[in-house]
Amino acid sequence: MDSVLVDKLGEYEDMPLWQEAADLLFGAGLTLNPSELHGAIAGLMAAGLAVNQEAERDTALALLERCLGVDLHGEVADFTRRVMAATRSAVLDTDFAFTPMMPDDDEPFEHRLMSMARWASGFLTGFTQAVATQEDSGNATIQPTTAEAIKDFAAIAQLDIDEQESDEAARELEELSEYCRMAALNIIQDAFAHQD
Predict the structure, then answer these.
(1) Cβ atoms of 111 and 35 closer than 8 Å
(2) pTM score, two decimals?
(3) Mean pLDDT over all residues of the chain?
(4) Domain containing residue 96: CATH number
């Protein structure tokens, strides 16, 4: 394989499961929903933070701490770096492996609905934090398609988490998740393309 391509991809990392993330975060005394953490990481990437190098991952950790109001150190910081690497791997995967980190389908519906809203909220906070940092350096530009998706994510972040489970509600949640997946993937890939 071409060494330039290998350098661009970085090492491939599998995405941890939502439950693994929840156990670690809650075990460390954090009440952070894993979906929100993953959404914030995706938001940082969507604003152009590639997290492919150690310095970028350190910058991302500091931004995540600021926008999520958490302290990421030790095992949680290592895990967060792993999620960053896995997210980057999924975004660059030719099979479009990227997907929002969500609880399994056998988890309670309201839990999955809340996690979808928290993912969208995390994306917004990560994106906003990274754009604000870029504005300080005069590098912030938001494409119209990105702005449209951001508005949609803001609406998704306000989902009614008390909605009762039904076949239609479950189908709508699946459609929302797929929309978030494709919209975020397109924004991040576009941001990465502008770095070349």
Answers:
(1) no
(2) 0.90
(3) 87
(4) 1.20.120.740
C-alpha span between 141 and 43 (Å, rounded): 14
Please state, as a whole number, how many other Cβ atoms lie within 10 Å of the Cβ of residue 136: 9
Which residue is associated with the tokens 């609880």?
103
Q: Among all chains, which residue has been given the structure tokens 């492919």?
A: 52
Judge whether residue 167 has pLDDT over 60.
yes
Could you report the per-residue pLDDT of 33-66, keeping only the tens digit for each?
A: 999 999 999 999 999 887 888 888 899 999 999 9
Give the integer Cα–Cα distance in Å for 87 and 101.
9
Q: In the 8-state DSSP scheme, what is residue 13?
A: -
128 C-beta neighbours (distance < 10 Å), count: 15
Residues 50 and 189 sit within 8 Å (Cβ to Cβ)? no
Instruction: For residue 20, give its domain range.
Output: 3-193
**At residue 2, does pLDDT exceed 50?**
no
Compute the distance between CA of residue 39 and CA of residue 143 in angstroms, rounded to an integer.
19
Rg (Cα) of the chain, in Å, rounded?
16
Distance CA(29)–CA(76), nearest Å, equals: 10
For 142, the token pair is 């938001």
Which amino acid type is present at position 123?
F
Number of domains in the chain: 1
